[in-house]
Amino acid sequence: MNTRDFFLALRQGETNFSGLDLQGLNLTLEVVLEVNFSGSNLRGAILNGADLLRCDFSQANLTDAKILGADLKAANLTEAILTNALLSASDFSGAKLCRANLQKAVLGGTCLRGANLRGALLRGASFECADLTGADLLGAEAKRSALLAAATLEQATMPDGTVYEFFTPMA
């Protein structure tokens, strides 16, 4: 389904796009709330500046997606594939990223306050200036040094289960 057909269906009230091939979909600066993209192929999608509150991206393929400055508060990205995705300056507050694959993803300046990243694959991901306040990283595969060097971790549960009382990276 191309971008034009997607918007036509959306305008007609469709909110279930699960399991569809939406590769390269462009939602730049669009408002798309509570839409189901679960299991969809969104490889290379462009979601820059989009308002995607409470959307379901569980098990979706977002490899190489560009999600810059987007609002994904309370979105479900459980088991989503976000390998090599650019997620900078986006808001994932309260989002579910359990067992998501974020290997080599760029999360610079991203807000992950209260996000659930339990069991997520974070190897090679960049967290420069990211806010993981209150995030749950229990069981996540990540280099502790990458998290400590770059992210705000106040009250975050680390992969080994320890909880940081307060930590802000040095400028």
UniProtKB/TrEMBL annotation:
The entry's keywords: Repeat
Keyword Repeat applies: yes
InterPro entries the record matches: 5peptide_repeat (IPR001646)
Keyword Repeat: yes
Pfam families to which the protein is assigned, alphabetical: Pentapeptide
Alphabetized SUPFAM superfamilies for the sequence: Pentapeptide repeat-like
Protein name: Pentapeptide repeat-containing protein
